[in-house]
Specification:
Order of helices and strands: HHHHHHHHHHHEEEHEEHEHHHHEHEEEHH
Shape: elongated
Largest sheet: 6 strands, mixed
Number of helices: 20
CATH superfamily of the largest domain: ABC transporter type 1, transmembrane domain
CATH architecture of the largest domain: Up-down Bundle
Distance between the termini: 81 Å
Helix content: 55-70%
Oligomer: single chain
């Protein structure tokens, strides 16, 4: 019980805190627009609820009963008409200009916060399903229009509260007993809040299945998966998973739906039947039995009670919806407040001299096996190092640790004799240029893919030179728009689709387009044939003269050109030395090289 009470108190606090958070964001984005929206909602609320439904009706009926002059009525009518024109003018300005710009600015601001945080979080978050659920719920504020609804809901609520106070004051002036029929709809707020909590539980339970559905819908439309989907039975598996997600969502709807429906029925009873029928019966009694209520006051009383009922119903609805949207905001704030496990240090790295792995061990989770165990080695400036071994030996994990995409579990990595945790993580990573085995190109121009930044006249030359060094400019230069050609057909039917090898060369060209101290190449030739691979290594050796280069590969063509070779097996460093030394040792490296060399010879004989 205590936990439930604490939870409810926290949820109420969430509404206030999260509304304040969103208003703060809105004020930063567009303060004048926010004020116009609030003024529009409040003035429109007061005008229709108080001026039209009470003041205008009371004036008209008093004139009929002979309690006023036509001149007074005409003056009030002029004021009402002018007020209507002013409110409509503000409303049209708000709807057709202010609010559209306001929404775009605010959504852009929230998205920028989400994107920035997504860049800050460590790589491990992207491999955690819970993280993706949090990320998905954080985007609800924008995707489901939560931002807009919170701002408009809070403005409408303030306007309704002010209108309600005016209406209650008027009803009390007629008969304080009428408050009994106004208090009943207040109960509606409690029921709607409870209903909203149930709906939120339902949405949370459905999140993993919604994410699974979104993944399948997206995957089926992506070119990267098209060949596998068309040539295998994987579509049947995906279809089965999609139907499973739908069925699980139906289960959630059945589980929570009856409770939501019951709460809705109860809230409608308190919102509609009691205040309207009770107020009308009491007004008729005063008019027909007691005879102490004039017809004009009776008519205005009915209008005021109906308006009060509507206001309370809307307030209950908006309060419940505000709570729901604010809990979306709570998800957003929790996501934004997430503290990355990889903390940035304060030191700025100097020019590279030496890198050392000292007794490094690593595992992804505390209860999982070690991927690397007790690894120690040194790399000096200008060295070319090959990291080789069978698949699953821990080579790629080594590169992630090197660039501090993960932190070591045990031991330390030293850059120029200082633990890499002491350095500013962004500045530290700027010392590296990398090409990963799961290379990707973006739906942008070739030049933007190479430079990974905006293009201008100066750096476009750098992109061209980089493409030439990677050996892919013959292909790119023959395109209609050359390096300004758009890659993929994601946004343009005239977009260019490159082969796997050409795509990999474009990603390799990123290496030649930037200044770096250390190049990390993780399976850089996985999509290339042996001839193209040899040419690529020639280009890399030429383009990285004086630089430190680390090749990570299970193909050993790079090893023969390296100053030092690190041989990994089952997460351990088993051999170290140059090609001649390791071949003379006759151990694992010698066996691997001999086997691969015979494969290349056979392939060459077959082609001949």
């Amino acid at each position: 019980m205590k936990k439930e009470k604490t939870k409810k108190i926290r949820q109420k606090a969430y509404v206030l805190k999260n509304t304040a958070f969103m208003l703060g964001c809105a004020f930063k984005c567009a303060p004048l627009s926010l004020l116009i929206i609030y003024f529009s909602y409040i003035s429109e609320n007061i005008y229709y609820s108080v001026v039209v439904n009470v003041m205008f009706l009371e004036t008209a009926l008093s004139l009929i009963e002979g309690n006023g002059t036509f001149g007074e009525f005409a003056l009030r009518m002029c004021l009402i008409v002018l007020g209507k024109l002013l409110i409509d003018l503000i409303a049209y300005i708000d709807v057709y200009t202010v609010r559209i710009k306001f929404e775009i600015k605010c959504e852009s601001y929230i998205n920028s916060l989400i994107f920035k945080k997504a860049q800050e979080v460590e790589l491990g978050c992207y491999e955690d399903p819970d993280f993706f659920d949090k990320y998905n719920r954080a985007t609800w504020v924008v995707d489901k229009g939560g931002f807009k609804r919170i701002i408009e809901g809070s403005a409408w609520t303030i306007g309704s509260v002010i209108s309600f106070i005016f209406l209650v004051s008027y009803l009390i002036s007629i008969d304080p007993f009428l408050l009994i029929f106004i208090v009943c709809p207040v109960v509606v707020i409690a029921f709607r809040v409870f209903k909203n909590n149930v709906e939120l539980e339902k949405d949370k339970a459905m999140t993993p299945y919604e994410r699974q559905k979104d993944y399948i819908r997206r995957t089926i439309l992506l070119k990267d998966f098209a060949k596998e989907i068309k040539t295998t039975n994987i579509f049947a598996v995906m279809d089965k998973r999609f139907r499973y997600a739908i069925n699980k969502n139906i289960e959630m709807i059945k589980k929570y739906g009856w409770r939501i429906a019951l709460l809705e029925v109860i809230s409608d009873y308190f919102a509609e039947i009691i205040p309207v029928s009770g107020g009308f019966i009491y007004g008729c009694y005063r008019l027909m039995v007691s005879g102490d209520l004039p017809i004009s006051e009776f008519s205005v009383l009915l209008s005021a009670i109906t308006t009060c009922r509507n206001k309370l119903n809307h307030l209950a609805h908006y309060f419940a919806m505000q709570q729901k949207h604010c809990l979306w905001v709570q998800n957003l704030r929790e996501f934004l407040q997430y503290e990355p496990k990889i903390k940035s240090g304060g030191l700025i790295p100097e020019e590279f001299r030496e890198l050392e792995f000292r007794n490094v061990s690593f595992r992804y989770k505390e209860d999982s096996d070690y991927i690397l165990k007790n690894i120690s080695f040194r790399i000096k400036k200008g060295e070319t190092v090959a990291v080789v071994g069978h698949n699953g030996a821990g080579k790629t994990t080594l590169s992630k640790l090197l660039m501090r995409l993960y932190d070591v579990t045990e031991g330390e990595i030293l850059y120029n004799g200082i633990n890499i945790k002491e350095y500013d993580v962004i500045k530290y990573r700027e010392k590296f240029a990398s090409v990963f085995q799961d290379y990707k190109v973006f739906a942008m121009t070739v030049a933007e893919n190479v430079l990974t930044e905006e293009i201008n006249e100066e750096n476009s030359v750098v992109a061209v030179n980089a493409l030439k060094m990677a050996g892919v400019y013959d292909k790119i230069g023959a395109l209609k728009n050359k390096e300004n050609s758009l890659l993929t057909k994601e946004f343009d039917n005239e977009g260019v689709l490159l082969s796997g090898g050409e795509t990999q060369k474009v990603t390799i060209s990123r290496l030649f387009a930037r200044d770096f101290d250390i190049a990390v190449l993780d399976e850089p030739s996985s999509a290339l044939d042996p001839v193209a691979e040899s040419k690529m290594y020639d280009a890399l050796l030429e383009g990285t003269k004086g630089k430190t280069v680390i090749y990570i590969s299970h193909r050993l063509s790079s090893a023969t050109r390296s100053d030092n070779i690190l041989v990994f097996s089952k997460g351990r460093l088993t051999e170290q030395g140059d090609h001649e030394q390791l071949m003379a040792n006759g151990k694992e490296y010698c066996d691997m090289f001999t086997l691969q060399a015979s494969g290349y010879r056979e392939e060459g004989e077959y082609e001949d």
